[in-house]
Amino acid sequence: MSAPPRPPAVNLDLRAGRPPILWTDGGPDPAAWAAQHRHEVRQILARYGSVLVRGLGLRDQGRTAAVMARLSTAGLLGEREPFAPRTQLGDGLLSATPWPASQQMCLHNELSYVPDPPSFMFFACLAPPTSGGATPVGDAAAVLAALPPALVARFEREGWLLVRHYNDDIGASWAEAFGTGDRGAVEHYCRSQGIEFTWDADGGLRTRQRRRAVVRHPVDGRPCWFNQVAFLSEWALDPDVREYLTDLHGPDGLPFTTRYGNGEPIGEDVVNLVNEAYAAHTLREPWQAGDLLVLDNIRTAHGRDPYEGDRTVVAGMSDPIRL
């Protein structure tokens, strides 16, 4: 395995407990800065997996989308199969995932349940909250190494299973998730992506998709814990919400949950174990207005801390890769 490239000689803050912070003065045209420094940002990502660019002064959606596009290879991607639909803001820019402000969003790799997830994730803070609300990041290779070998071996052998039940009670409807109300088009998409599906008598949709839980990074080959086993687990739901939905739809009718690749349930103890490994390898930095966070999505998981006040963080993703 070759060593990652050395980062360029830039004003890079590497203090412990925080993601690398690249201090810069973006000047009057942040998109021009992004085009000029794209290679440097990529070098930092190759070494550290994440970088917070501070000093670009991002304040509006148009400039923010332009910066993200310049740092990508071929522009920003649209959303796919969301469990909680984001708002599409134009030019590939997305709102943050809807999630209760009072609840922690545990770490996960974006779209790890599709065969060709984005290589890079972008988050920009247009307005920080009064308190909290950071976007913590975690090294997926370190998380993998921290998990019990027997558990890792099982996930490597079986993969993980995402089970979804699209209905009108919580989360995205199937029309929202697949971007169409045409059942035939949904079925065609599911077949093309290796997703098993069945329709309920009342028009609801149930799907199952088996994906790898551990992947090797396409550049340096390091093994990474790459999935949403904990984040999309039924044990990630608020206990009262989970009890209500279980009473309403039964244990097999929850809007989403995760299982081992052979279909067996994943217990709350395993989900807690994964989240403890994430917590032990988490970096965070409070948002400042105008910040841009860039992540290697294969190597680096992300989440969201609870917060108070208004928080405007927008997102983008780019460079799909077939794993």
Automatic annotation (TrEMBL):
Principal EC category: oxidoreductase
Pfam families: TauD
Domain TauD/TfdA-like: start-end pairs: 28-313
Keyword Iron: yes
GO molecular function, one term: dioxygenase activity
Origin: domain of life: Bacteria
Keyword list, A-Z: Antibiotic biosynthesis, Dioxygenase, Iron, Oxidoreductase
EC number(s) from the headed UniProt entry: 1.14.11.-
Co-factor(s): Fe(2+)
InterPro entries on file: AlphaKG_dependent_hydroxylases, TauD-like_sf, TauD/TfdA-like
Protein name, entry field: TauD/TfdA family dioxygenase
Organism annotation: Actinomycetospora atypica
